[in-house]
Specification:
Layout lengths: L1 H24 L4 H8 L3 H13 L3 E4 L2 E4 L3 H24 L2
Antiparallel strand pairs: 1-2
Helix pairs in contact: 1-3, 2-3
Length: about 100
């Protein structure tokens, strides 16, 4: 069960790296991201699909770009992570 959580955290980390690449280099394509980040093309493609499904990026002929929702997601990310950390700490303590 915990292995699944670890895998999800790793995948979230990759999605966030891909999102950061789009934010910093828009428009950007799969090949450049793969070369820069060291992930296989299919991993980048999957992350882009997840980011698109969450309305954080949008594909163009020139490559991925951010959306109007990207900034607010990034601004609220630390708070969301802190909330998760608090919940995990409570689980660990047995509360």
């Amino acid at each position: 069960m915990i292995d699944g959580v670890e895998e999800e955290v790793d995948m979230l980390g990759r999605h966030l790296e891909v999102l950061q690449m789009v934010v910093n280099n828009k428009p950007i394509g799969i090949v450049k991201m793969s070369n820069e980040l060291g992930y296989d093309h299919h991993e980048i493609r999957y992350s882009l699909r997840i980011l698109e499904e969450n309305n954080l990026i949008e594909p163009t002929k020139q490559g991925a770009i951010t959306t109007d929702e990207t900034g607010s997601f990034i601004e609220s990310f630390d708070e969301q992570i802190d909330d998760i950390r608090t919940r995990l700490t409570a689980m660990k303590a047995g509360d």
